[in-house]
Amino acid sequence: MRQFPAIGGMRSVEEFRARVEELRLEIPCDEYVEAAPESPLAKPLHVAGKTIGNRFCIHPMEGWDGTRDGKPTDATIRRWRNFGLSGAKLIWGGEAVAVRHDGRANPNQLLINEDNKRSLSQLREELLAHHQQACGSTDELIVGLQLTHSGRFSRPNEKLRPEPHLLYHPPLLDRRVNANGNSPLLTDDDIRRIIDDFITAARIANDLGFDFIDVKHCHGYLGHEFLSAHTRAGDYGGSFENRTRFLREVTEGVRSLAPNMLIGVRLSAFDLIAFHSETTNGKTGPGIAEHTDLPYHWGFGVDVNDPQRYDLSEPRRFLTLLRDLGIHLVNISGGSPYYNPHIQRPALYPPSDGYQPPEDPLVGVARQMEVTRALKEQFPELILVGTGYSYLQEYLPNVAQAAVDQGWVDSIGLGRMVLSYPELPFDVLSGRGLQHKRICRTFSDCTTAPRKGLPSGCYPLDEFYRKSEDGAELKALKSAARAQTS
Ligand SMILES: Cc1cc2nc3c(=O)[nH]c(=O)nc-3n(C[C@H](O)[C@H](O)[C@H](O)COP(=O)(O)O)c2cc1C
Ligand code: SF4
Questions:
Q1: How many CB atoms are closer than 10 A to CB 475?
Q2: Is pTM beyond 0.85 here?
Q3: Is 293 exposed, middle or buried (0-12, 13-18, 19+ CB in 10 A)?
Q4: pLDDT in tens, 144-194
Q5: Which of 28, 128, 223, 354 is in the most buried spot, having the most CB atoms within 10 Å?
Q6: Are 272 and 302 within 8 A, CB to CB?
Q7: Whose CA is nearest to atom 21 of ligand 1?
């Protein structure tokens, strides 16, 4: 099995830079990290008359911990409080919130509707209150809500039972959700009803005081699947115009019901083919790209002649469309946690349903950074949030500062790091330095737990989860799995 050097074992910026050079990657990394107000990470951004007070963004991070009817629980509220305490001035959506029950990714996903309005409002209020407490003011804080339909990855009723809503039949992905070429597809009328649900959800988010909604187009969920629906017939498949009709109709509807609501889009701006692993002597091997006939017609941002490479021609067209629609907030991600997790969330340790890293996870970080940089170069007027930084660990602040300073990206998105160490942005900007024991080491338990039907959270580093009943259950499940394979 290939072993890659752990970031936590590197002793200095020089050692980190040497590894980056050895891998022939481009990852900018400053020697020293400045505190506010001089820090490039403390510089404000401006969008549609609003100011975002610094360059840290909290990515949407779902917890699989809502009630069965889609309301937040204490654990959900605690996570949103932590988002507020982080000191980041851009909160990208909190977490994926389903616009209808059958589009939930799990039976505990939050659901936005009139019944749940009051309890969803509490999430934003608690976030604001805790931000006020940590930072002394909620000025220049922008809070969005991520709206989703999980499409092919819907599991609304049973944690482990797929109930996919399909737009077309990509053979490699159909079999992952127990579907096949005969499984029914969403009709154009079904799609129109889903669009109405997004518009209603946006109106409710507007009533609740959210600054923007994210019309989620990433990670294999419905919005993302539209973009690759080349082989679908009808109004929502085939041509680029048809594949983006969903976005345009949602945007038009939101603007008519809630004209002041800002719209953002989280986008898987590139993709690769699906990966799988082989198990030898009970050990999961490194990820292997699935075999496919060429050309490969089932991706967005994928090279059709070599689907292990990305191709930004259509994503560039998509960003042009966003700009023309007046959508200036774009969060760049890639791939999907379901079929190529190593590109979506680079990690040294795979989740239970994953595979050993097929490349040094730094390659995954560099890929996300290079895509965002290329898009930023072409679209300077858009505000681009970057993804994949958690794997950088001790060097996250050095790389983040350099990337913002050199104009590769506008805002540094934090995903897993905010589960283990929410106050990282605050510590960086105040010049206190990092609390090393709280740094996310990409153990992937926050992904493994939901794969086993448990709520997500940082089980290794956050006592709230480590000491809980769920923590004991996860430990038992993991050791049972180890015993089976040894
Ligand atoms: C437990 C968990 C929950 C997530 N939930 C969401 C979500 O609700 N919406 C979303 O767009 N991305 C979600 N993501 C992806 C993250 O926002 C982020 O893109 C990913 O973790 C990579 O960033 P990082 O390297 O900072 O972790 C989730 C990731 C994890 C690990
Ligand atoms: S479980 Fe904790 S340490 Fe592991 S990847 Fe998730 S946030 Fe990081």
A1: 13
A2: yes
A3: exposed
A4: 999 999 999 999 999 999 999 999 999 999 999 999 999 999 999 999 999
A5: 223
A6: yes
A7: 415
